[in-house]
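Customer escalation, tier 2.

The customer says the design service returned an amino acid string that "doesn't look like it belongs to this structure." They asked us to rerun it and document both sides in this ticket. The original structure tokens are below, unchanged.
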């Protein structure tokens, strides 16, 4: 079995990733303002979407290990299932 990551570790990693994404978005703004070739901008927007998706995946993994686990072991299974399904449906859109 692997070691569980502490919530603080996940928070630090997510914050670092979000700051990188923030920089990427600022770069996109500059590209648009400068009239950069559209395909180059679209390539960068795709990279931002992938980075955000990675943050979402990491947050979901942490949620499953902590909140969902607590909910299911304390008899709140329907709440846990509803939350996971809600996020699953959001990601499919």
């Amino acid at each position: 079995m692997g070691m569980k990551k502490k919530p603080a570790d996940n928070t630090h990693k997510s914050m670092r990733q979000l700051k990188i994404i923030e920089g990427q978005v600022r770069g996109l703004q500059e590209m648009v303002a400068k009239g950069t070739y559209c395909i180059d901008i679209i390539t960068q927007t795709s990279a931002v979407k992938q980075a955000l998706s990675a943050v979402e995946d990491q947050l979901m993994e942490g949620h499953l290990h902590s909140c969902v686990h607590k909910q299911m072991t304390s008899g709140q299974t329907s709440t846990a299932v509803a939350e996971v399904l809600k996020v699953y449906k959001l990601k499919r859109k």
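Tier 2 assessment: The sequence is consistent with the input. The chain has one domain: 8-92. Residues 8-92 form a domain with the Methane Monooxygenase Hydroxylase; Chain G, domain 1 fold (CATH 1.20.58.1000). Sent an explanation to the customer and offered a walkthrough call.
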